[in-house]
């Protein structure tokens, strides 16, 4: 019993000593990871029926109250976008920057091109799809309920 009490007291002492050393090195401030703001992905004139982002082939038509314009709250970083149009798959690796809008459109000969510009709006209208919810395979219906998407092959 005394050994267990001694080990517990020693563990608490080591914990407090390590916290004091870290506090002394950082000036008493806690270390926190910097927050990376999400970006926005706008799809300009792309066929939304056969679109895949990062391997997620979920329907986009009918997900929003208005015609879908793009995605909000997209994590910053590289994303793989694949579009099937005219029986041909076109792929693009797009980089979404923190706090910026990335636009994807079709260029010459149907190739996908990206352009960046503008800051992400504070509020999004009904034409933007919430990317974290969409990528999990759920969507919020206009009635406010959640439906899980199954049988996506025919969507």
Describe this structure as you would to a colleague:
The protein is of the alpha+beta class and 155 residues long. The protein has 2 domains: 1-32; 39-143. Helices cover 19% and strands 36% of the residues. The chain contains 2 helices and 10 strands; from the N terminus they run H-E-E-E-E-E-E-E-E-H-E-E. It has helices spanning 2-26, 131-135; strands at residues 39-44, 51-53, 70-74, 77-85, 88-96, 100-106, 112-119, 128-130, 138-140, 146-148. A 5-stranded mixed β-sheet has the order 7-6-1-3-8. The longest helix is centred in the N-terminal third of the chain and has 25 residues, at 2-26.
The major β-sheet equals: 5 strands, mixed
Number of separate domains: 2
Share of residues in strands? 35-45%
Helix content: 10-25%
The main sheet orders its strands as 7-6-1-3-8
Total helices: the number is 2
The helix-and-strand class reads alpha+beta
| Structure summary, number of beta strands | 10
Structural Rg? 23 Å
Q: What would the average pLDDT be, to the nearest integer? A: 76
Order of helices and strands: HEEEEEEEEHEE
In whole angstroms, the N-to-C terminal distance is 65 Å
Unreliable residue runs: 139-155
Shape: elongated
SSE map:
Blueprint: H1 2-26, E1 39-44, E2 51-53, E3 70-74, E4 77-85, E5 88-96, E6 100-106, E7 112-119, E8 128-130, H2 131-135, E9 138-140, E10 146-148
Parallel strand pairs: 1-6, 3-8
Antiparallel strand pairs: 1-3, 2-4, 4-5, 6-7, 9-10
Brief summary of the model shown:
This protein is an alpha+beta fold and 155 residues long. The protein has 2 helices and 10 strands.
């Amino acid at each position: 019993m005394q050994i267990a009490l001694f080990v517990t007291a020693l563990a608490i002492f080591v914990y407090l000593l390590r916290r004091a050393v870290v506090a002394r090195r950082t000036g008493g401030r806690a270390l926190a990871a910097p927050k990376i703001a999400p970006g926005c992905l706008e799809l300009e004139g792309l066929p939304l029926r056969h679109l895949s982002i990062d391997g997620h082939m979920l329907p986009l038509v009918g997900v929003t109250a208005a015609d879908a314009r793009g995605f909000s709250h997209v994590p910053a970083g590289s994303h793989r976008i694949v579009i099937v149009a005219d029986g041909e798959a076109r792929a693009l690796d797009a980089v979404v920057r923190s706090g910026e809008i990335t636009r994807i459109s079709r260029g010459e000969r149907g190739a996908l091109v990206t352009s960046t510009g503008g800051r992400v709006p504070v509020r999004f209208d009904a034409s933007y799809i919430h990317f974290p919810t969409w990528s999990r395979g759920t969507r919020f219906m206009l009635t406010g309920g959640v439906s899980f998407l199954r049988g996506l092959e025919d969507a």
